[in-house]
Amino acid sequence: MSTAGIYSAPAARVADPPAGGYSRTSIWAGRVGRVPYIAYSIGFGTLINAAGAMLAILSGEPLASVFMGVAFIAFVCIHALLSVQRAHDFDTTGWLAVLAFVPLVNFMFWFVAGTSSENRFGKPDSPNSKEAIVAAWVVPIVLIAGILAAIVIPAYLDFVALARSSQSG
Question: What is the mean pLDDT of residues 146-169?
């Protein structure tokens, strides 16, 4: 046994994590974090609805109805894949993704944090950029504000019309 190097400095790198400690986000395999899950879900839904609305305006309702039916099936498949990967992110079985189709329970996938280290389903997603986090907050707020505006503005216009008719009569 040689004792020549027992007092030398260690040669192992212990301070820096190994490069490539994150996985690439993919729809087909691996894990998906909260922010990409929200972005992909809302993005695909918005894209499909916008394409269906444009098709209805340009070609008429029958073709748009067929497109929206096919697009809805595609959206359900994509959403199921994303939900399975989101369930894998917090180290549970993919069968939990069935809950993504239950109203209000599906918000669980928005709020449950994923495991920060590698789990049995792979490495975690890369950290989110500031822009992605801002988008994950802004998009739902804009959607909720749009829904509220769609309810409030017609009610306000009806109120104004009723007030004008009561003043003149």
Answer: 89
Closest among 100, 85, 51 to 71, alpha carbons compared: 51
117 and 141 belong to one structural domain: no
Is residue 101 located within the same domain as residue 46?
A: yes
Pair (43, 115) in one structural domain: yes
| Residue 47: partners with Cβ closer than 8 Å, 6 or more residues away | none
Q: Give the position of tokens 């216009």.
A: 157
pLDDT at position 14, please?
58
| pLDDT tens-place string over residues 79-109 | 899 888 888 888 888 888 888 888 888 888 8
Determine, yes or no, domain membership for 11: no
Of residues 95, 94, 96, 81, the one with CA closest to residue 37? 81
Cα torsion 140, 143, 144, 145 to 10°: value is 120
Name the residue with tokens 């509220």: 148
Cβ atoms 37, 109 nearer than 8 A: yes
Report the domain count for the chain.
2
Same domain, 77 and 90: yes
**52 Cα distance to chain centroid:** 21
Q: Is 22 left (phi over 0), alpha (psi -120 to 50) or beta?
A: beta
d(CA 29, CA 94): 11
